[in-house]
Amino acid sequence: MKILYGVEASYIIQDVPEFMDLIKKETELFDFQQSTFLFEQIAHAEFTRSVLAEAGLFEEFFNLCYIKSGVKGETFYDFAIETDSGFCLFTELLSAFTITGGSAEDIRMAVFQFQEHLVFTAKEEEVPLVYFSELHLKDLIIGIAEAYDIQVSFLDLDK
């Protein structure tokens, strides 16, 4: 997982090719999806934000967690952007956790229960799996873990 920076522009940005050309020329653009510019470097995101703000085309700035592969949950598109190379999840709207202990059967049953509340499950090479749920469901996730006598550990998505 790595952090990307997203700069959302007004939907009319695609009708203004000179802004698209300027941003592509002056930055290292990671990707562009759904009127959102994605960057690996915050300086490039800040430059884009200022250019768009001057033109009255800036909408929002946010941090994203970029993951190359995984499984989308039912509400994925409310909390993430899919690119050609992976998935970008809005960090300020989600909590991420791993399962750190419990019997195999209890873990299997808990994961089954978690499924209806997951936005995304990362399938990166590292183990354990990382699960993403809506931020306001953190207490529910803890309750499910306690009910199945498993341990979960929440990750800090700001780093």
Can you walk me through this structure?
- The structure is a single chain.
- With about 160 residues, the protein is an alpha+beta fold.
- It has helices at about 15-25, 40-55, 75-80, 105-115, 140-145, and strands spanning about 1-10, 30-35, 35-40, 60-65, 70, 80, 85-90, 95-100, 120, 130-135, 150-155.
- It is built from five helices and eleven strands, in the order E-H-E-E-H-E-E-H-E-E-E-H-E-E-H-E.
- The strands form two sheets. It has a six-stranded antiparallel beta sheet. A five-stranded antiparallel beta sheet has the order 5-9-10-8-11, covered by helices on one side.
- A hairpin with a 2-residue loop joins strand 2 (about 30-35) and strand 3 (about 35-40).
Short description:
30% of the residues lie in helices and 38% in strands. By secondary structure, the chain is an alpha+beta fold.
Features:
159 residues, alpha+beta, six-stranded antiparallel β-sheet, five-stranded antiparallel β-sheet, 5 helices, elongated
